User: What shape does this take?
Amino acid sequence: MYVGTQDYIVSLDLHNINREPLIIHWPVSQQRRDDCVLSGKDQNGECANFICLIQPWNRTHLYVCGTGAYHPICSYVNRGRKAEDYIFHLEPGKVESGKGKCSYDPKLNSVSSLISEELYAGVYIDFMGTDAAIFRTMGPQTAMRTDQYNSRWLNDPEFIHAQLIPDSSERNDDKLYFFFREKASDSGSSAVYSRIGRICLNDDGGHCCLVNKWSTFLKARLICSVPGPDGIETHFDELQDIFVQRTQDVKNPVIYAVFSSSGSVFKGSAVCVYSMTDIRTVFNGPFAHKEGPNYQWMPFTGKIPYPRPGTCPGGTFTPSMRSTKDYPDEVINFMRNHPTMYNSVYPVHKRPLVVRTNVNYEFTTITVDQVDAADGRYEVLFLGTDRGTVQKVIVLPKDEMEREELILEEVEVFKVSQQLYVGSTLGITQVTLHRCDVYGEACADCCLARDPYCAWDGKACSRYSASSKRRSRRQDVRHGNPIRQCRGYNSNANRKTMETEQYGVEGSSTFLECQPKSPQATIKWVLQREGSDRKKEIKSDERILRTDQGLLLRSLQLADGGIYQCTATENNFKHALVRVHLRVLNNETVNLVLTHSGLPMASLQGVGSPGTSRAPNPQYKDLLQLLSQPEMGVINQYCEGYWQRPANIEKQNLNKQQKDKPVREQRKPRNRRNHHTAPRQQT
Assistant: This one.
């Protein structure tokens, strides 16, 4: 894997990401940097060589380009024939201009595709960043670009992706698709539209009009919206990323797109899926037409010239025309004035696959992996967010229209088999696509996770492998039914729920942790109080707070002691996750133990109503640490010795402490106790 950064090109070994990378340092000259600074650009953020293009040239070389401190440059990198060659260096003396291949400004995104030694790129080609174009450079064909300063073609675009998708078995029909977002061309409109555009690879431009300019360029709007009950659609207008999922039919891949909302009132993001059949239908439909600036866009109803604008020369429909220069002038003129299709491309099922609203993040990137599970093939979405996390999501069909979305996990991180590589300004991180061990040690948890990568193998939740030899593996991605899948294992799962002890001090707070392995599970807490067989469900109130991570008990009371059980329910299957025996220690008893044990004391000044304050209280954290294993034996030993001390020592200690009134008050309850020589039962 090759990564371009500021002044560096890095080669990473996908088989061992921790292997020492091969690095090329490719800075600009000091003179070029000084000229960039003198032009008013930032010395660190702009006046450097930001790598913007890395394309395979042949088996041994890469073609690379960088911004060159606002002076784009390109060159060739020798990478060797095999990874074992350990070769990675720039070819000396082969630096050339990068204009039309890489933008001047590193903040302006550019996309590219190198096909048969011809480079197609969507870039800004001027210093000021006002002239955006889709370019073809290099190779034997004529250099081409989109019509310059024509807002009907491109209007301040942000290029996202470029992808070659053949239309038929005839190579002359091959088209390159560009995905981008741009400002609406309507006068005075600030709206942003997401677009899909396309060109023919064998486009040579027009003969008299559109010379050296694309004569087959067409574009259409990409719609990703949520229909409302009143018929009004809520649009996600800003395209962020594209992933093209290949299928067995190379002509019909599946297009996954990430969108975000552009309005200030509504914030959210969504994932929409598009079929090439729907995309081609739109490009074969009516052209958008506008009579004048104050008119609405309408479908063109006049005569469409032959061959149909956007058709590739020498293809299935124009076998006798070998070049676009053979097209009649009326075809070229029509193309120049009608580059936009009237109909928009809608997603499959006319609705998004995944939607996020009212959250503090947005989706920014997407990668999709196909997984063969026991009950079918599934697509797992890996969605990167602007807060540096990756969500692993699967969408399951409920019926013909409804879909069920499951978040399998969310990985905090700063496209290759079994590994996901996440890049940011901080670096590159490798994330494993499957982490089956996080789903627990029970068959039910593994099944309820509904992760197509994972299955229960009889002992643990492990990586699923489609093999007829392993019939004992339990997996149910579609329904997630552990009652059916985990017969014989469910009782074992409940038996593994061990009871643990936890201590708290009267008046303080404590937290009981319980986090289900499955994000779809519903959590229920019940309490069985000391000396009672009844179990009562715990609900949130002014003292008790239920969180996604567990149960927070504030201002503990002695009555809060008992056995707390956390139960997860999903698909009518209940599973005890945690059993905690909470022991609440009496405040006065703890004060007494702290006083005689010599543990550190700290005054906690409480905050009350104006003009009042709480009395100083001891710090209990040291005591609670002693109550944990293995230090529990230490405090038990102290208490045993304390209760068995001779009476004369007790009297001496009493005389010493009579000078201290607060301590004397603490000892009053003890004067009424009868101390026995036998070991006292622990409280």
